């Protein structure tokens, strides 16, 4: 294992070195939080694919393939579909808004008062996403170094917190590009063909396994529909995903770069399911489906290659973890703390009456603070699947309708948005208590209740102020925020 250890150590050292390099570039809030909005198509595609394809997509995707065969690809496939929908239909408008968070978009669209409550929901989601990604280090470092669970979490979490806090989005972008390359080589180009060959080839796999392992919808229509509601819609509204959209150099990069990343996700989904299917042939009696990835890597791959593929799994976890961490810190600082202090206006700009702040220092401090919280919660928490399900249900059930409604329906009002968040969120929580956290009913009825509340309250309350809509329309057209405000003021004066 000495060669494999060397590969992993070099990889981890490279992550920290890129964090140090990124610190030299992140001199402003824009550079620190959204990489100066300067990413071109190559870097944008790679980093977007890296953040959405985490440990669940890699280790969990192979596990679903082990259990269900080719239809196990559907979870990751719906993630790719969500990224494609976001990129083709919404990303250009999102990028032109020049905001930093989803809550800033809601305040800009509805005229304020929606930011804090939506920020709390988004903060809970990004926090739990970071926690579940951090816990995945325990599995990987246990395979590599036989570390106890808490030590593995502290080691992996410290590395991610360090490079994220040093250079912000620039560090995360650079490390994500390396992680994207490592994942592509390790999973698609090495593990996939080796797994098929070790299983005896495609014909032998079909001979050894039941026919439903090769049925495209074998996992079940209801399961696929639930994946669409949670993951496809979750891709449309998550702060971790939007924050990457904000890094695009222009709306064309956001649209077509994201389309490339979404297509890559579809290929990655199929690869994971095929690897899991091959593992079922080789190891039909594993104790847990999630052991399939580590088992096939440690038992079937040659020295050096094994280290690279384990580095690929580590890359998948780190990319999601770092993206969720900076999203969590951004929301905590800009949407909750700064708003409670009254340091920002409803459009996300700084309040001129407030003293000037070192925003890079503030955001770096929040990454450190949230990073420590994530590590401690990860050590204490056991049932992460339920915790992440709660977060996703609240995100989609509470925020999907007001976000998409704001982008698509002019008549939506701030009261309708607040009602949608409250009614959808409370319905989800109540039904999870009644039917269980992992039940499908909460997200179904939560979305429906949120939609009804949004439509009914919006129609029953006065339309949004035309001046607010004018600024919103100007921002959607890509005008500079200050120019948009000046244009509205001039129009009102005339």
Automatic annotation (TrEMBL):
Keywords, ordered alphabetically:
Membrane, Transmembrane, Transmembrane helix, Transport
Ranges in coiled-coil conformation: none
Keyword Transmembrane helix in the entry? The reply is yes
Q: Name one Pfam family in it.
A: SSF
Any transmembrane segments, and where?
A: 6-23, 44-66, 72-95, 116-138, 150-173, 180-201, 213-237, 258-279, 308-332, 365-384, 390-409, 416-437, 443-461
Q: Identify its membrane topology class.
A: Multi-pass membrane protein
Task: Note whether Hydrolase occurs among the keywords.
Answer: no
Cross-referenced InterPro entries, in alphabetical order?
A: Na/Glc_symporter_sf, Na/solute_symporter, Sodium:Solute_Symporter
Q: Which compartment or compartments is the protein found in?
A: Membrane
Q: Which PANTHER family match?
A: SODIUM-SOLUTE SYMPORTER-RELATED, SODIUM/PROLINE SYMPORTER-RELATED
Family listed: Belongs to the sodium:solute symporter (SSF) (TC 2.A.21) family.
Q: What protein name is recorded for this chain?
A: Sodium:solute symporter
> What is the scientific name of the source organism?
Streptomyces lichenis
């Amino acid at each position: 294992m000495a060669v494999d250890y060397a590969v992993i150590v070099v990889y981890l050292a490279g992550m920290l070195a890129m964090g140090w390099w990124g610190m030299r570039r992140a001199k402003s809030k824009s550079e620190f939080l959204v990489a100066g909005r300067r990413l071109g198509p190559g870097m944008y595609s790679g980093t977007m694919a890296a953040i959405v394809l985490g440990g669940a997509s890699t280790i969990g995707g192979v596990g679903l393939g082990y259990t269900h065969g080719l239809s196990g690809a559907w979870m990751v496939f719906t993630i790719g579909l969500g990224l494609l929908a976001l990129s083709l239909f919404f990303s250009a408008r999102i990028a032109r808004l020049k905001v930093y968070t989803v809550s800033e978009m809601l305040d800009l669209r509805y005229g304020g008062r929606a930011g804090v409550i939506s920020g709390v929901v988004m903060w809970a989601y990004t926090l739990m996403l970071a926690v579940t990604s951090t816990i995945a280090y325990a599995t990987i470092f246990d395979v590599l170094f036989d570390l106890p669970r808490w030590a593995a979490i502290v080691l992996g979490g410290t590395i991610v917190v360090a490079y994220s806090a040093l250079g912000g989005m620039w560090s995360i972008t650079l490390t994500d590009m390396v992680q994207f390359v490592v994942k592509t080589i390790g999973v698609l180009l090495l593990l996939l063909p080796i797994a098929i060959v070790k299983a005896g080839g495609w014909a032998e796999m079909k001979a050894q396994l039941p026919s439903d392992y090769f049925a495209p919808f074998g996992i079940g229509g209801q399961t696929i529909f639930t994946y669409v509601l949670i993951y496809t819609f979750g891709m449309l509204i998550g702060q971790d995903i939007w924050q990457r959209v904000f890094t695009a150099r222009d709306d064309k990069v956001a649209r077509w770069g994201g389309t490339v990343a979404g297509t890559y996700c579809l290929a990655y989904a199929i690869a994971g399911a095929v690897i899991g299917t091959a593992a079922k042939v080789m190891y039909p009696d594993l104790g847990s489906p999630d052991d399939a990835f580590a088992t096939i890597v440690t038992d079937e791959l040659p020295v050096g290659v094994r280290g690279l593929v384990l580095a690929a799994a580590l890359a998948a976890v780190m990319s999601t973890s770092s993206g969720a961490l900076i999203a969590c810190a951004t929301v905590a600082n800009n949407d909750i703390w700064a708003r409670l202090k009254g340091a920002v206006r409803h459009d996300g700009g700084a309040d001129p009456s407030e003293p000037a702040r070192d925003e890079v220092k503030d955001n770096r401090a929040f990454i450190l603070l949230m990073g420590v919280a994530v590590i401690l919660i990860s050590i204490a928490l056991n049932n992460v699947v339920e915790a992440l399900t709660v977060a996703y249900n609240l995100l989609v059930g509470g925020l999907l309708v007001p976000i998409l409604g704001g982008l698509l329906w002019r008549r939506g009002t701030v009261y309708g948005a607040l009602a949608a968040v409250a009614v959808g969120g409370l319905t989800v929580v109540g039904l999870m208590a009644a039917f269980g956290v992992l039940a499908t009913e909460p997200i179904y009825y939560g979305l429906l209740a949120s939609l009804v509340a949004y439509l009914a309250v919006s129609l029953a309350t006065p339309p949004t102020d035309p001046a607010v809509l004018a600024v919103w329309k100007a921002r959607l057209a890509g005008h500079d925020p200050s120019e948009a405000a000046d244009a509205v003021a001039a129009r009102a004066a005339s």
